[in-house]
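so ive been stuck on this for like two days lol. basically i have the seq below and the ligand is flavin mononucleotide, smiles is in there too. i just want the complex predicted, nothing fancy, no docking runs or whatever. if the output looks off dont worry ill sanity check it later, just need somthing to start from for the group meeting slides
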Amino acid sequence: MWSIGRIRFDSRTVLGPMSGFTSRSYREFMAGFGPAVAVTEMVSSKGLLHDPVASERFVSSPKGCPTGVQVFGGEPDIVAKGAAKAMEINPDLLFVDVNMGCPVPKVIRSGSGSALMRDPRKCGDVVKAVKDAVDVPVTAKIRLGGTDETMNFREVIDELLKADVDAVTVHARTVDQRYAGRSRPEFIRNLGREIPVPLIVSGDIYSADDALRAIEVTDAEGIMIARGGVGNPFLIAQVNSLLDRGIELPDPTMREQSEWCLHLMDMTIDELGDKMGLARLRSLVPKFLAGCRYSREYRRAVTDPGTDYEGMRGFVVRMADELGDERRRCEGTGLRLEDRTAMKPA
Ligand SMILES: Cc1cc2nc3c(=O)[nH]c(=O)nc-3n(C[C@H](O)[C@H](O)[C@H](O)COP(=O)(O)O)c2cc1C
């Protein structure tokens, strides 16, 4: 049992924010596998203020799916007002997380995301302003620092703590690394026991063993599942089982993968409609088909621009027929490099 402010959690897995992936339907689908909470993809605080109607779908949360909202922005008062607006749109949101790690140039140019880490005092000011504006706990998601030479996570965390932050997530890469190269939790060794609020560790969690190692090194309370969970939702159940009960669950069969994939396909189309839904599925579905015999052929078929929704479903059903009880091979961090580098935000 751990908590963020007054919100208590049994499960230690946190579904991480991913622009272009963690939409409402994805979060709802993943909730079935047992994360403590899901974080929305980052939402612009300016967008929330200027076009709350358009922002609504990003901050909405399905019943039975505990959700925190992630906001981004460069100025404390704007982030605070944006956060308050998000809470007004969806009062069920459990906490507000502030993005301080996004490496996308457009976001940095606006002084948001990882640009905030260049000014640790400002990071504190943002959290302070948000805390004054909302009644729920406030958390921040940071990186190790800008580069190996300017790794200032400790300084930033000190300012966040002064501002009374309720939890901190550290993605154990520098901004320079963006999403490639190895995540390096060894730089935040024992951090979890050194700070008075919960630490959530993020980076390269592709297997239950990866999660266990990251927690052992950092002493984090929470473990964030991001790219590793895309197309492998059962990872959440495997991590929970290993961390809570010391039991290793076998990898899912391709029949299970197929059933889950079909379910998510329907939910995605329901949420995003035919056109946007199909575009989203072209990046989601191939991940479900990874790690099996013929996966390259299946993946090529479903990503073919000529394959429509029904065609895609056909391949996913065929996979279950052809491979049935064969288990997905979840190779862990090392062999997933190709997948990892392919999934970058725009
Ligand atoms: C496509 C994509 C979109 C992402 N969007 C966000 C985001 O909106 N907010 C955020 O804080 N992190 C975002 N991240 C970072 C993830 O939450 C996570 O910290 C990172 O991918 C490291 O974990 P992993 O190596 O296990 O994927 C994104 C990552 C990817 C790959």
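DSSP finds 14 helices and eleven strands in the chain. The first strand starts at residue 2 and ends at 4.
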